[in-house]
Amino acid sequence: MKKIVITQSNYIPWKGYFDMLNAADVFVVYDDMQYTKRDWRNRNLIKTPNGLSWLSVPVSVKGKYFQKISETEISDQKWTDKHWNTIKHNYSKSMFYKEICSLIEPLYARQYKTITEVNVAFIKVICGYLQIDTDIRYSSEFTLAEERSQRLLDICLELNGRKYISGPSAEAYLDQKLFSENGVEVEWFNFADYPEYDQLHGQFEHGVTILDVLFNTGHDAMKYLKPT
To answer: What is the distance of C-alpha 70 from the center of its chain?
Structure first.
């Protein structure tokens, strides 16, 4: 049964994001959706000695009209140095600091035009390290219906998918009957019951960037994600 995940790109996402990707055969980057401020598209959390801290990529949001995530451009190219220095400072004492630095540092040496370019570049490199070989496609490759449930279903059908994997928040709006009538099973991904690992800077936090898992567990990272 071919399994599909369709979701927006996030900046250095948390471990649950990569678990969903690992559970699927195809991941569709859903960046034809409207960009939303103060969301995960351009920011994520790291741990510091002073608590949780945001790393935010500066983007240009032009007015209040519909602006696609894929059209959202980086507004200041100096962000890469700032983020990389912050990451080095806060993870320099982690067990796998040197190994993960060699993986991530080249990504901060690039320049990017859009937030989608940033996010997909990081996602691909991290998937490679985690040995997640899910095929990555873009929603712009597909014919998109106006109604959102139909749009998601159509992408699944174009990919010959028979299972659609989604985060539980979509349960409030997704037309599951429509999927069932068209032979596509809906699976709500379970983000509960993650094991803890040795983490820097005080009380354990699950909802931080995947970089935290990588710096602290290295090649054992998949032990702290969910088995497929």
So the answer is: 14
Digit-coded pLDDT (tens) for 115-165: 999 999 999 999 999 999 999 999 999 988 889 999 999 999 999 999 999
pTM over 0.70: yes
**The token pair that represents 102 in the structure block:** 């060699």
Q: E strands of the chain, at which residues?
A: 3-7, 26-29, 43-48, 51-56, 59-60, 73-74, 135-138, 163-166, 185-188
Range of the domain at 95: 3-224
> Taking Cα atoms as reference points, which of 34, 9, 116 lies closest to residue 73?
116
Query: What are the structure tokens assigned to 183, written together?
Result: 């032979």
Looking at the 3D structure of the chain, how many domains does it have?
1
- CA atoms within 13 Å, Cβ hemisphere of 85: 5
